[in-house]
Amino acid sequence: MSEVTYLQAISDGLREEMRADERVLCLGEDIGEFGGAFKVTDGFLEEFGERRVMDTPLAESGIVGTAIGAAVVGMRPVCEMQFADFIACGFDQLVNVAGKMHYRQGLAVPMTVRLPSGGGFSGGPFHSQNPEAWFMHAPGIKVVAPATAEDAKGLLIAAIRDPNPVCFLDHKHLYRRVKGEVADGTYETPMTARVARPGEDLVVIAYGAMVHTALEATEDLGGARVEVLDLRSLVPLDEAAILDSVRRCSKVVVLDEANRTCAAGAEVASLIAEHGFEDLDGPVVRLSTPDVPIPFSPPLEQAILPSVDRVKEACNELLAY
Amino acid sequence: MSSSHTEASSLVDVTMPQMGVSVAEGTVVEWRKRVGDWVQADETICEISTDKIDSEVPAPASGRVTEILVEVGATVPVETLLARIDTGAAPGEPHADEHVEAEARPRRYSPVVQRIAAEHGIDLDAVPGTGRGGRVRKQDVLAAVEAHAGNGEAPMHTESPYRPEPEPAPVPEPAAATEGDSRSRMRRAIGEHMLRSLRTAAHCTTIVEADFSAVEAGRSALGLTYLPIVARCVIDALREFPALNATFEGDRLVRHDDVNLGVAVSLGDEDGLVVPVIAEAQLVSAEGLGRRIADLARRARAGELTNDEVAGGTFTITNPGAFGAIAATPIINQPQVAILDLEAVVKRPVVVTDERGADAVAIRPMANLCMSWDHRALDGALAARFLSAVRRNVESWTGG
Amino acid sequence: MATSIARPAATTPRAVASDRTVASDHLNRDDRVALLRFMLLMRGLEERAGSLYRQGKVPGSFYDGFGQEAVSTGAAFAMAAEDRLCVLHRDLAAHLVRGVAPARVLGQYMGRAGGVTGGRDGNVHFGDRTIGCVGMVSMLPDMMLVATGMAMAFRLRGERRCALTWMGDGSSSRGDWHEAMNWAGVQRLPVVFVLENNQYAYSTPLEKQFAVRLVHRAKSYGFPGVIVDGNDVEAVFEATRAARERALRGDGPTLIEAETMRMHGHAAHDDMRYVPAELLERWRARDPIDLQSARVAELGVDVEELRAAVADEVDRATEAALAMPMPEPDTATDGVFCEGEPEPLGDGAQPWSGFHV
Q: Which of A248, B215, B389, C161 is the most buried (most CB within 10 A)?
């Protein structure tokens, strides 16, 4: 066990799985010599060589498409999009080729696409997105989004070992801000939700960086015992855990950092409305970023990303309902 | 501004203030409170307008507004009585015109509140709400359930022609209700149920003796007591004789496909007994029944059974024999038509006949199976045949 | 390689000195007959499928490669069992060369449970993974990147194998064409790109698609482009065989531009009124099956007997396919995800004699 940052945990997970499984290969822009824009693959080229740590041309469609080819002949490619936002350039390959291949042809595509996502540090409109909902909506693609260092390592390894295309969302803002105790060696975290803090009076459902916002906001709300449910996996979505929290707490705040319309939280809210109706003691409240491109200047960005104060306010209001 | 207090009552006056030396009158622009509203001291009670200045008038005391004497738009001299506040009122009291409001907009209850209320027989109209606008929140109905728990548990039957006693008031004060009665609430409830059962059913009891040698041989290997094995034998016999797996619904006798087996559990001398039900028991093996019975008994004694777990039974078995009695005439658990008592297993000398027809005396573990049954639903011959089937199952038990 | 960078226009069929010219030194008699047989089988199946389509037994749309049979037959014939193929919609013969049973092809068109995809995808959007074929997607030329990726894996693992994909002239206008050519070129990957220039992308002629002949682009990516007579099955074979050898030597990719003509509409619902009649006439005179039949007849083979045998095979396949049930409705949501161990692509048939020395 060691205490490492979320970033280090991702790097460790990738490194240790590459050591354990020679089929794993990394490909992405600037990941070799440079060690990756965020240094996730720092030192990898020295250890694994060019055959397994590939600096690709600037071609997201190419990265995803060639990864598909490598995967169907027995490799386990891990693509890095330099920023999650750039997956838009590889959208067609991911959704139309990778996602649909097994359903159509019975041919599995065991590949992982790492997506450094999220905002909060003046990245601007093209370096701050949370695109997970696009891929939740595409059949045949799994989507995972860890919030802790421990889960970051375990979910990455689980994603690599999964025989399907998996989008792995690294939240950039957690890279160095979050640390945790992480076991050595390889282990898999199941693609299920986790109760980050148990409670009874209200549950905040979140994933990624918003889990930490939720925990901070609901630490001390006038004695109310607020549960925080960390989804961890968006596809598959842990419906049982969500409904269990709703059953016990009866009041729900669903928190998304992504743009509001059709974000992951919309699916969660819809699930609760349909299957948790009898357990509700109040409307299902959603908090999210409004439908705007993420602005660059700090006061603008801070105004739209869900803040600790906004979460507190929403919880207090719902508690009093 | 001025206010005046009258010593005789807890009413406090609100009067038109003088907003300046030369101001002689003021006009009421807006009332922020209605008659019956609660107002805090210093909270704005109305807005006024004068020649000099417009102003908000803070309430001189906390309490409930009992009268408003000057309407909006009226101009009155300084020190005119505008309103009165009753400082003796309590904040939780309903608004004076709430009943009128209620017709216009009935109280609404959330899904979870309705569900909990239905499960526990709570009248939501009587539950005070601490949520926004006075709505009943989940914790409010749960508090009502706890307060209510002492009295009216859901009655064990609702179909008896003899209607259950009306629910006692939801204030748990048993000593006040029945002076000098040292029985616990449970004991009284059980007593009433038993009396009703005797008045309702035409009780007869039939007894058979069963040889438990086969059971003895197999049960220790499985780690089972007698009860779950007998339970399984009873369930199998009920499949042969479905007339006994029936309940009265009013005057109608209804047979059931599923055997929902009630198993009487003693809670101790003070608290009597409770009968949790194993639903669809026909699907459960003897070992499974053993585990379920143990679990239900533990939870019953810890007070953890839910209402669902004591409802819906179609046949009951009981085992007072664990305490050494060898025969009894149990009372039927309404609205079922029979109840079977497993009495003590005792070593007795019995006559056994060998293959050649010769008789000998052998020592065998024997127990009486005593079944009380309702003559409205069946007769002695059927009761005896059923019990014989149970005995046959017990005596040929191989561990299934 | 062509030397003049002329503005592209619809190609007139290239004249060949003699239809008896031997285009390849690597084909024996049996190979030549086999090439003809595969082309006959492709045409026979597509004609039958077209007929079934007009009878209402084939749902959706119907695409064929009438007149282009040589491009898929010749190229697939040069591929080894361990090579991997991305097969496009006018390349039915490639599936047949690799070993797909004709009945399963017809079943596939009719959406039957016994079709190659079991009704999951339609017409030629299929690839039997057990024989090393990856089923295409409609977005073209996405499969170029998949083939590039397969070749990349072979190179990374040091394996002597190659990947091959077909693509059309129309697809060359999309970004993925460039990304694949560039990637394959910069990494010197063992991939063969067979560009079927059949003169039209649906109704769009060449002169509206690109300013420079496609074959010349290859040089910009660092590897050779060759033009081949797409209606000469042996020439297509030879070009592919040579390209494969290049790839296996480690010399990187090749772009083979096979000139041919799409003799039917884009699909069964297209009457291709935009194609000049005389163009069709000239290409009809160089029908690939006619050309190969003449060659093979010279060798003393009874072509009519061969045709009859293929026709019979098509009839039997039709009967078998018509007997296949439709898929069960409640299986519609199955198989979105792979649940167990993934199975990579398998090896296909390799009928060329060159693999059996």
A: B215
Same domain as B359, residue B220: yes
Are B112 and A281 an interchain contact pair (Cβ–Cβ within 8 Å)? Answer: yes
Cβ contact A279–B115 (<8 Å): yes
Which of C120, C339, C341 minimises the CB distance to A103?
C120
Domains and CATH numbers, chain A: 2-182 (3.40.50.970), 194-320 (3.40.50.920)
- Give the residue on C whose Cα is nearest the Cα of A139: C336
| CA–CA dist C265, C275 (Å, integer) | 9
Q: In terms of residue numbers, what domain contains B131?
A: 99-188
Nearest-CA neighbor of B347 among B232, B216, B248?
B216
Beta bridge pairs of residue B211:
B366
Which residue has tokens 């707490």? A249
Confirm whether B1 is domain-assigned.
Answer: no
Residues B231 and B371 in one domain: yes
User: Minimal CA–CA distance to B317: which of B225, B191, B231?
Assistant: B231
Which residues of B are tagged catalytic? 375, 379
Do B76 and B164 sit in the same domain of this protein? Answer: no
pLDDT per residue rounded down to tens, chain B (400 residues): 444 444 445 889 999 987 777 778 899 999 998 888 888 888 889 999 887 778 889 888 888 888 899 999 999 998 899 999 988 876 665 555 544 444 455 788 999 999 999 988 899 988 988 888 888 999 999 999 988 775 554 444 444 444 444 554 455 444 444 556 777 777 777 888 888 888 889 999 999 999 999 998 888 777 888 889 999 999 999 999 999 999 998 888 999 999 999 998 887 776 678 899 999 999 998 989 988 988 888 888 888 888 888 888 999 999 876 677 888 899 999 899 999 999 888 899 999 998 888 999 999 999 999 999 999 999 999 999 999 999 999 999 887 5
Give the minimum alpha-carbon distance from A304 to chain B in angstroms, rounded to a whole number.
28
Whether the complex's predicted ipTM is more than 0.90 is answered with yes
Q: Number of Cβ pairs closer than 8 Å across A and C? A: 142
Shared domain for B103 and B160, answered yes or no, is yes
Q: Do A279 and B137 touch (CB under 8 A)?
A: no
pLDDT digits (tens, 9 = 90+) for B184-210: 777 777 888 888 888 889 999 999 999
Do residues B263 and B304 both lie within one domain?
Answer: yes
Number of domains in chain B: 3
Q: Does B179 share its domain with B122?
A: yes
**3-state DSSP: chain A helix, strand, coil percent, rounded to 5?**
40, 20, 40
Asked whether residue B383 falls in the same domain as residue B312, the answer is yes
Of B110, B135, B139, the CB nearest to A280: B110
CATH of the domain at B23: 2.40.50.100
Strands lying side by side in the sheet with A226-230: A194-197, A226-230, A202-206, A252-259, A285-289
CATH number for the domain including B110? 4.10.320.10
Inter-residue contact B260 to B314 (CB < 8 Å): yes
Tell whether B232 is covered by a domain. yes
Q: Give residue limits of the domains in chain C.
A: 29-54+61-327+344-349
What's the gap in Å between the CA of A249 and the closest CA on chain B?
9
Which residues of chain A make contact with C151, given a CB cutoff of 8 A?
69
Residue B238 to residue B278: CA distance in whole angstroms: 15
Summarised one tens digit per residue, pLDDT across range C140-160 is: 999 999 999 999 999 999 999
Q: Which chain A positions have a beta carbon within 8 Å of B140's beta carbon?
A: none
Which residues of chain A does B132 touch, with a Cβ-Cβ cutoff of 8 Å? 320-321
Question: Distance between the two ends of chain C, CA-based, in angstroms?
Answer: 31
| Helix extents (H) in chain C | 29-54, 69-77, 92-98, 102-109, 142-156, 175-187, 217-221, 233-249, 277-284, 288-298, 303-322
What CATH number matches the domain at C29-54+61-327+344-349, 1.10.268.10, 1.10.630.10, 1.10.10.10, 3.40.50.970? 3.40.50.970
Q: How far is A201 from chain B (nearest CA, A)?
A: 9
Length of chain C: 357
Pair B240, B353 in one domain: yes
